[in-house]
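New to this. Please check this record:
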Amino acid sequence: MAGKKKSANKVDPEVFVRRKLLGRKLGMTQIFQEDGSCVRVTVVEAGPCTVVQVKSVDNDGYDAVQIGFAHKSKNIAKPQRGHFEKAGVEPLRRLREVRLKAADHGLKPGAQLTVDIFEGVKKVDISAVSKGKGFAGTTKRWHFKLGPRSHGSMNIRQPGAIGQSADPARVFKGVHMPGHMGAKRATCRNLKLVKIDKESNLLLIEGSVPGPRGVFVEVSASLIKKKKGSGNT
């Protein structure tokens, strides 16, 4: 009996050089390893992602691959609909680019990227929008120390001086002050990839990931190598 033919839209993991997928954070759980130790992990639904566009130096001025995630069925602008129809794919909710040279990947619009591309990867970087925590003071936002808490003290949680007097008579940019906390793009690097569930397109990553449950995330193979003499694993 002849073996099964590979799908034309299936991508060989070795071909995709800069490994990156889009996905969604599902939550946290714990798993037990063979030695009996318990590891807390974040479950991320990664892909499948569809290649929407392949950019080249000749046409666009740079080499890149545009990938998309999560189907979108309504509220699609005509320019966006035309962009997806040109690629021959269904409208997608999230689009991101990965800088790759055409000679390194061999991808075409419509190709599917799955968690298989992370086979053999030990460390990953995850980017997402962190949890928004509203307006916060300097103690909560920047971890300022408290002032004296003795009787009559009027400076327990106040920020204190923020600048000089006559010279330069202004507040420098970047001074830590009260303001909106969170709701910014954050990246956690060198997180350990514990397990890959190919059937469910899940990545189990040790530790916490920015953002609440359901947040859109970008997962990529870490490029930072361990320094000699460093205690990090």
Remarks:
- Residues 78-87 form the longest helix (10 residues).
- The CA atoms of residues 196 and 203 lie 5 Å apart.
